[in-house]
Amino acid sequence: PPNQVLIAISLFLTFFIMAPTFNKIYDEAATPYMSNKISAEVAVNSASDEIKKFMVKNTRKTDLIMFSDLAGDKVRYDKPKDIPFRIALPAFMTSELKTAFQIGFLIFLPFLVIDMVISSILMSLGMMMLSPMLIALPFKLLLFVLVDGWSMTVGSLVSTFSVG
Q1: Most buried by CB count within 10 Å: which residue of 33, 60, 156, 159?
Q2: Would you state the pLDDT for residue 163?
Q3: pTM
Q4: Long-range pairs of 77-80 with CB within 8 A, sequence gap ≥ 24
């Protein structure tokens, strides 16, 4: 799909996954700030704590330990709330990149098998000048539609997050 479609899907999934966190930030930081019950500094701290809690909950422990070591922190954090934002943010990003590569690899593998099968069939028929990609594309699309690829991809992506 075109980049605009992928960006739209990623935005909608972000809003879907982050909805409980956004609601909590709205209730505990934005609303009290707008009604002048708390200061801007308290509201920002409250909101960043909620975002950090979400990130730490959805980050691999190995990534948190790695960035803690890279930052030179000798302290092991007992509670997620003790982890500084400067460690939680890059650890979360690295953890999400790792998940993205895993999902991409799992999508790529069946398509690679289809390419290899089509290529070997065309070579055995002596059709060296015919592009295997031209023949394989309809089979890839058919496979993606038959296994309900969008639902599987979106479902597996959303299931990697712990929201509650």
Answers
A1: 33
A2: 67
A3: 0.79
A4: 80/52, 80/53, 80/56
